[in-house]
From TrEMBL, chain A:
GO terms for molecular function: cyclin-dependent protein serine/threonine kinase activator activity; kinase activity; zinc ion binding. GO terms for biological process: nucleotide-excision repair; regulation of transcription by RNA polymerase II. SMART domains: RING. This is CDK-activating kinase assembly factor MAT1. It is found in: Nucleus. GO terms for cellular component: transcription factor TFIIH holo complex. It comes from the Eukaryota. It comes from Daphnia magna. The keyword Secreted does not apply. The keyword S-adenosyl-L-methionine does not apply. Residues 123-158 form a coiled coil.
From TrEMBL, chain B:
Belongs to the helicase family. RAD3/XPD subfamily. This is General transcription and DNA repair factor IIH helicase subunit XPD. The gene is EOG090X01B4. One of its GO terms (molecular function) is 4 iron, 4 sulfur cluster binding. One of its GO terms (cellular component) is nucleus. It comes from Daphnia magna. The lineage of its organism: Eukaryota, Metazoa, Ecdysozoa, Arthropoda, Crustacea. It is found in: Nucleus. Its EC number is 5.6.2.3.
Length: 344, 736
């Protein structure tokens, strides 16, 4: 392995001295910590490689593998402190981009020592011209930064909330399961009823509980505000438009087989026309036809038409006096007057 | 069929589970083609996505049969053009390039022969090599469309050879006007490829995803990036190459750089108008409003951009130098990169596009070296575009070897709906189908779409030709389970062994066993050696084992098939989620029994999985356990489905784990398996299981002719037209 960091001065490597730390200064040349202490004992001196004057205080721990990047980042930070105009400060995006490029060129020149006099002049000019904007911008965050901060905060808040919620929910569920089981055992031990019926009732109770649970789990989460957009402005999913509009899903259950018995309807009125004949009798003329999407799910206009007819005809023969009065008579006969008022 | 027709009528999406080997492909193809013929305006194109090249070929065969049938019945040439598309590797006919084995190399070499600047150079200097096939296609191929017919990959190649046209570009060009296109998932789902290949497919198309039970994982993989230390080192190399090329070009030909610069000042939109061959580098999804915008000034000139890339790479390197696992959201990453190396979000977002443009300008023809850098630029673009549904995980070492430093940065997509969303939005009907999609309600949730139809079909069978059983205990009544706690228990391992030995003694021909992981397979096999079970097993059948090495596995498979074919009989030990479990069919005598040892849960300690589970819980209210069970059961069902490839086939399916008999697991099996899984077969011991097997095999071994099936699972034309049947069909159609 030859990719260990090496001090260019004393040739110590990270392998031989794991505690070695490389430091860099403004010129971008690395030195190990002990060399820095030796060479810069007085507090200032020249870089052993490029001979440029350096101060000891300015030595920092090298962050990146390539010391040149360290140097560049250093310069960049310094420059960006001054050149901190925002897009809002420019009338058009084009001008902002031109400005950004100019900044980039300045940094590039400084890093590679191209034309230092002119560059420094440019910086000084800029400093003079844009003093107040720089000052102002220093105190306010850019929009993007703010957005990021917001996102981070929201994430944090959501996380802690969610974590608590789910831990609690899970604990609760476990407890309940445990309780139910103990209850069943207790009942089986002490009650005289038929063991089968006890077990059956237990199964029913747990099934009912299980049905309730998903609702409970879904409820608290709906309280948390979901952002429906990426920060780039793209919609996340369709959730924003139709909330929770999944189709009901047939669930398979392990219950005893259902046996169909034809239901007997007591219309209490003239029998409505059967659903198959509605078309022939021209009932659909007054009803909106089902569109394709509705028909895909099995819906037809005949259904709603039939239902409306049933509703209209049902109960026409219903005579309230008979049933209602007998009941009332049995309890109280004095309210008969008012009763008649009501029924008529 | 009814459901599919309804979905097509309603122009909505649908989710269909159809048992494997019952003519799923033919059914889909014939209905959709018929629909296309009946309503040529409503439905213009069928895009059929499958997983692998052999599967694509199978679909093409079915299509050819269908077309022949049409021709025979209608008596004339059909005006339908169907073609398969695959990568350059499978379609190239260039004499030397097609010899390359690796897909990336083929792509790179193709690019170096066909890129527009190479061709321009060739025009000036004849010594620059170009691809004659592409030239032929470019000169003549675009005017003459392919004659109607069905073209699979070989046909395309043949046609290309005959005309001296490049089949790959011919196929890509033809996609726009073909009626039926068959290709891999990635051409639609991977945003990087979809942008190039599938951009011009119209909205009035039907998209069919076949074998789609893994579609969520495909979606996630297409949006995730993995960055290792080695990849970053390679990046540094390619950055230096870029630097030297730029400085060379500055000296010799600074005009070109200037031209690029000017174009970038105007906006990216112009930069994307590139010729088809130049699109070897593509960018991940960018919302179009970003594309309209100009490239930010910070990365406009080439040197600045290279310095920018250098900083990004160095920054990621520092991030990889961690001692413990870090998990971070994209927002956190963006903030950190801003404070550490002063990189804003906007230039990051443009980096993929900018790099593609730079490489094009620099006329670098060998792209294979730059793939690491491209990966990093994709990562940068993705991380700055999406703040939701993604996470960054940095692991300093692998879990299995905590002492070996091997830092990896995973940028993993947690939301499978992000990649598939454009597909659902763009096409009027998307059909998702597979043999094993149960439980159906999970897919709409994790893919975030609203199907109009969602059905699971069963099989109509003339005889009970599958025998699913759940074996929960051994002969000594010790419960069998691959639970973590009992995993090392010798009693459990021995019982698994005894089960296999006894089944091997009773069942003829091939037996396939699935284990939950390679690790588990190895430990079990080694203790079977100690217990002498392997010897007992080899008395009955030969033994083959799947390994992680693809070549070794295919050798084992060939020999397994040989052993089954000559009647010796064989046992194949393989792994759920492995190569064998996905897409290799064991029809008829190759798989008379499938044994599933344990429930194939995923490795739950993986941090990526953990993050995904958390995300699913928060966003879609899917509980961890539900998802894990769902995932395990679909893989189990996939394994079981391997042995049933048709109505005349028969096979035993043994689920050897106590936990399978629980209602939550059992109810997640596909309907066509559940139907045959009787309550009496749910809690068997080894001995009982073998008894049932013997009885059932005797029954199945009776001669089974076409006449037996007639009227039940097979209908003649007369039977189909008989009044009784028509009534039945009518009833079905209206009753739903």
């Amino acid at each position: 392995m030859d990719d260990y960091q090496t001090c260019p001065k004393c040739k110590t490597t990270k392998y031989r001295n794991p505690a070695m730390v490389l430091m860099v200064n403004a010129c971008g040349h690395a030195l190990c910590e002990s060399c820095v202490e030796l060479l810069f004992a007085k507090g200032s001196g020249a870089c052993p490689e490029c001979k440029c004057p350096l101060r000891r205080n300015n030595f920092r721990v090298q962050l990146f593998e390539d010391p040149a990047v360290d140097k560049e980042v250093d310069i960049r930070k310094r420059i960006l402190k001054e050149f901190n105009k925002r897009q809002e400060d420019f009338p058009t995006l084009r001008e902002y981009n031109d400005y950004l490029e100019e900044v980039e060129t300045i940094i590039f020149n400084l890093v590679f020592d191209i034309d230092p006099t002119n560059t420094n002049k440019m910086i000084d000019n800029y400093k003079k011209e844009n003093k107040d904007i720089t000052q102002k911008n220093r105190n306010r965050q850019s929009q993007e930064e703010m957005e990021l901060e917001e996102l981070l905060e929201a994430e944090k808040a959501q996380q802690s909330e969610k974590a608590n919620l789910y831990v609690n929910a899970e604990l609760e569920e476990k407890k309940q399961k445990h309780k139910a089981r103990e209850k069943l055992i207790d009942e089986l031990m002490f009650s005289d009823a038929d063991a089968k019926s006890i077990v059956a009732s237990h199964v029913q109770a747990t099934a009912a509980l299980a049905k309730e649970q998903p609702k409970a789990a879904a409820q608290p989460s709906s309280g948390v505000v979901k952002s429906s957009k990426f920060s780039s402005g793209i919609q996340i999913g369709l959730r924003g438009q139709h909330t929770n509009s999944f189709l009901p899903i047939p669930k398979q259950e392990d219950l005893p087989l259902y046996r169909y018995t034809a239901p007997v309807f007591d219309y209490d009125g003239p029998p409505p026309p059967p659903i198959e004949k509605l078309g022939k009798l021209n009932y659909f003329a007054n009803i909106r036809a089902a569109n394709i999407a509705e028909r895909a799910g099995g819906y037809t206009e005949a259904m709603s038409c039939c239902r409306a007819l049933q509703e209209a005809l049902g109960g026409l023969f219903y005579s309230p006096q008979l049933t209602h009065k007998t009941a009332v008579l049995a309890t109280n006969s004095s309210t008969q007057d008012t009763d008649d008022m009501e029924t008529t | 069929m009814l459901e599919l027709k309804r979905a097509l009528d309603a122009k909505g999406h649908c989710l269909l589970e159809m048992p494997s080997g019952t003519g799923k492909t033919t059914t889909l193809l014939s209905l959709i083609v018929a629909y296309m013929k009946a309503h040529p305006l409503d439905l213009t194109k069928l895009v059929y996505c499958s997983r692998t090249v052999p599967e694509i070929e199978k679909v093409m065969e079915e299509l050819r049969k269908l077309m022949n049938y049409y021709e025979k019945e209608m008596g004339m040439e059909q005006n339908i053009l169907g073609l398969a598309l695959s990568s350059r590797k499978n379609l190239c006919i260039h004499p030397s390039v097609s010899k390359e084995r690796e897909g990336k190399v083929v792509d790179g070499r193709c690019y170096s022969l066909t890129a527009s600047f190479v061709r321009a150079r060739h025009a000036a200097d004849d010594a620059v090599p170009i691809c004659e096939f592409y030239e032929g296609f470019d000169a003549h191929g675009k005017e003459f469309p392919l004659p109607p017919g069905v073209y699979n990959l070989d046909d395309l190649k043949e046609y290309g050879q005959m005309k001296r046209w490049c089949p790959y570009f011919l196929a890509r060009h033809t996609i726009t006007h073909a009626n039926i296109v068959v290709y891999s998932y990635h051409y639609l789902l991977d945003p990087k490829i979809a942008e190039v290949v599938s951009k011009e497919i119209s909205k009035t198309s039907v998209v069919v995803f076949d074998e789609a039970h893994n579609i969520d994982n495909v979606c996630i993989d297409s949006m995730s990036v993995k960055i290792t230390k080695r990849l970053l080192d390679k990046c540094s190399n390619s950055i230096t190459i870029l630097e030297t090329t730029i400085s060379n070009m500055k000296e010799n030909d600074s005009k070109r750089l200037e031209k690029e610069y000017k174009r970038l000042v105007e906006g990216l939109r112009d930069a994307t108008i590139a010729r088809e061959t130049d699109m070897a580098l593509v960018n991940p999804v960018l919302p179009s409003e970003i594309l309209e915008e100009a490239v930010p000034g910070t990365i406009r000139t080439a040197e600045h951009f290279v310095a920018f890339l250098k900083r990004v790479v160095e920054y990621i390197k520092t991030r990889l130098r961690v001692q413990h696992v870090v998990q971070e959201s994209p927002a956190g990453f963006l903030r950190d990169i801003h404070t550490k190396v002063c990189i804003d979000r906007k230039p990051l977002r443009f980096s993929a596009e900018r790099l593609a443009s730079l490489i094009r300008t620099l006329e670098i023809s060998d792209l294979t070296d730059f793939s690491p850098l491209v990966t990093v630029s994709h990562f940068a673009t993705l991380v700055s575009t999406y703040t939701k549904g993604f996470t960054i995980i940095i692991e300093p070492f692998e879990d299995r070897a905590p002492t070996v430093s091997n830092p990896i940065l995973y940028f993993s997509c947690l939301d499978s709906s992000i990649a598939i969303k454009p597909v659902f939005n763009r096409f009027q009907t998307v059909v998702i189908t597979s043999g094993t999609l149960s439980p159906l309600d999970m897919y709409p949730k994790i893919l975030d779409f609203h199907p109009v139809i969602m059905t699971s079909f069963t099989m109509t069978l003339a005889r009970p030709c599958i025998l699913p059983m759940i074996v929960s205990k051994g002969n000594d009544q010790v419960a069998m389970s691959s639970r973590y706690e009992t995993r090392e228990d010798t009693a459990v391992i021995r019982n698994y062994g005894n089960l296999l030995v006894e089944v091997a003694a009773a069942v003829p021909d091939g037996i396939v066993c699935f284990f939950t992981s390679y690790l588990y397979l190895e430990t079990i096999v080694s203790s079977w050696y100690d217990q002498g079970i392997i010897d007992q097993l080899q008395r009955h059948k030969l033994l083959f084992i799947e390994t992680q090495d693809a070549a070794e596995t295919s050798l084992a498979l060939i020999n397994y098939i040989k052993a089954c074919d000559n009647g010796r009989g064989a046992v194949l030990l393989s792994v759920a989620r492995g190569k064998v479990s996905e897409g290799i069919d064991f029809d008829h005598h190759l798989g008379r029994a499938v044994l599933m040892f344990g429930i194939p849960y995923v490795y739950t300690q993986s941090r990526i999985l953990r993050a995904r589970l958390e995300y699913l819980r928060d966003q879609f209210q899917i509980r961890e356990n539900d998802f894990l069970t769902f995932d395990a059961m679909r893989h189990a069902a996939q394994c079981l489905g391997r042995c049933m490839r048709g109505k005349t086939d028969y096979g035993i399916m043994i689920l050897a784990d106590k936990r399978f008999s629980r209602a939550d697991k059992r109810s997640k099996l596909p309907k066509w398996i559940q139907e045959h899984l009787k309550d009496t077969n749910c809690n068997l011991s080894t001995e009982e299981c073998v008894q049932i097997c013997k009885r059932w095999l005797r029954q199945m071994a009776q001669p089974f002719s076409r006449e037996d099936q007639l009227g039940i699972s097979l209908l003649t034309l007369e039977q189909l037209q008989s009044e009784e049947m028509q009534k039945k069909i009518q009833q079905r159609a209206q009753g739903v």
